[in-house]
Amino acid sequence: MLLTLDLVGIFVFAISGGLVAVRNQLDIVGVVVLAMATGLGGGVIRDVVIGAVPPPAVADWRYLLVPVVAGLVTFRLHPAVGRLEGVIRLFDTFGLGLFCVAGALKAQELGLGPAPAAALGMVTGVGGGIIRDLLAGRIPVIFRHGELYAIPALAGAALAATLAELGVAHAVILAPAAAVTIGWRLLADRRGWRAPVPRLGPPSS
Is 25 part of a structural domain of the chain? Predict the structure, then answer.
């Protein structure tokens, strides 16, 4: 179950990376590299932190093949979707939802409690997007002013980790936990919700 969830999350996130590369007019190598970095980055961070080394991203050919295919598909189909920021955000949102759940469940499987598993799930979800944006010369989504990104990821990961701690099957956890993150992100985009930011007074003279 976790393998399937990982691979689906990698594919979706890799497409968002490929789309960013296309939008920045990178060649086919740049598209594939950015797709791989986006799809694999969060999972590698997770696996290194919890000591699952070597990470499956370098030890299992399927983890390498999936983002390469996603990058090539994106490169081939980019005339239809490559310049649409909304499409990039949509794939990023679904990748975030899948990855934060996968990260939390894998951490919990290896013996971490609900709180650290939730935190690691969030890191898994946001890691690939940060790497993608930095490589593309963009401000990472997680750092953009008031962007609701890490908070929905943490909420979905926390729900997944809590349900796993209670003995709920992973197959049952996936949909509701991912839906929390995905639904929150989509609603935030639609309704203009923003994360709290500090209120600064007028500069002192």
Answer: yes
> Is 106 exposed, middle or buried (CB count within 10 Å of its CB: 0-12, 13-18, 19+)?
buried
In total, how many domains does the chain have? 1
Q: Does residue 93 fall inside a structural domain?
A: yes
Q: What is the distance between the alpha carbons of residues 79 and 166, in angstroms, rounded to a whole number?
A: 47
CA distance 43 to 47: 6
pLDDT in tens, 99-148: 999 999 989 888 889 999 999 999 999 998 899 999 989 888 888 777 88
- pTM comes to 0.84
In terms of Cα–Cα distance, which of 126, 113, 115, 111 is closest to 46? 126
As given in the structure block, the two tokens for residue 121 are 């799930």
Which residue from 124, 115, 98, 100 is spatially nearest to 43, judged by alpha carbons?
Answer: 124
